[in-house]
Protein: CoA-binding domain-containing protein
Organism: Nocardioides aquiterrae
Amino acid sequence: MPTMKQAASEFLANRRIAVTGVSRHPKGHGSNVVYQRLRDRGYEVFAVNPHADEVEGDRCYHDLRSVPGGVDAVVIGTSPEHAEETMHECAEAGITQVWMHRGPGAGSVSAAAAAYGREHGITVIDGGCPCMFDPTADLGHKVMRPMLTLGHHVPRKV
């Protein structure tokens, strides 16, 4: 099992990343923060929300299958109830790296989704946030990481 730091590094080495659950109403929404950070750091990032055609001034896709050319990795930023469906979509699309976002709250982590992904050869990061790790990190997220690791919101191993 890779350490969280190793898994985060491998995940963030991908250049085409989809973020699910990006909201049309971005204020304080974790998916939007992740989406913006990846975009601002030069990633080719794709917003996914079945109820939006545009978010953050960019085109939004209704599902992962709609993203032209596919993606290398996915950040799940929806409620846990939707994570398993997204994980099935990732397996069908051959996506091998998925990060289920989780900050201080409940986040997007679903045990069933994580188990399904792992059974299908997907590296699943079940907690934490891409903004906690370089090259996408900021000071606030770096400070939160140890506290959230102690609280089991960020896994030690993946």
